[in-house]
């Protein structure tokens, strides 16, 4: 899905707010409470995700916990023919 001009402008305004170039009041007046709160939640979730321990990954709903397993459990490596 391509971003619209309005989407891009919303992102730019939020980034200005995030950098401190706009006050919270200015940002809320320009974008509305729902957008500011939603973008703030998304930004916090993104920051938290970047700090997660990647030693525990999910593959097809199963955790790979430092087992050294790097292949998907459903992969079949038998040769046909």
Number of strands: 2
- Between the first and last Cα atoms, what is the distance in angstroms? 43 Å
Report the portion of residues in β strands: 5-15%
Reported for the largest beta sheet, the result is: 2 strands, antiparallel
Question: Uncertain spans, ≥5 residues at pLDDT below 50?
Answer: none
Question: Structural class given helices, strands, pairing?
Answer: mainly alpha
Mean pLDDT equals: 80
Tell me the radius of gyration.
Answer: 21 Å
Fraction of residues in helices?
Answer: 40-55%
- How many domains in all? 1
Number of helices: 3
Spatial shape: elongated
Element-by-element helix/strand order: HHHEE
In spatial order, strands of the major sheet run 1-2
Region (Disordered): 58-81
Biased composition (Basic and acidic residues): 69-81
InterPro entries: DUF8065
């Amino acid at each position: 899905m391509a971003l619209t001009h309005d989407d891009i402008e919303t992102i730019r305004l939020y980034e200005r707010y995030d950098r401190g170039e706009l006050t919270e009041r200015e940002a809320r007046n320009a974008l509305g409470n729902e957008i500011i709160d939603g973008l703030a939640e998304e930004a916090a979730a993104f920051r938290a995700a970047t700090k997660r321990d990647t030693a525990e990954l999910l593959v097809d709903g199963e955790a790979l916990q430092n087992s050294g397993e790097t292949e998907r459990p459903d992969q079949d490596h038998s040769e046909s023919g």
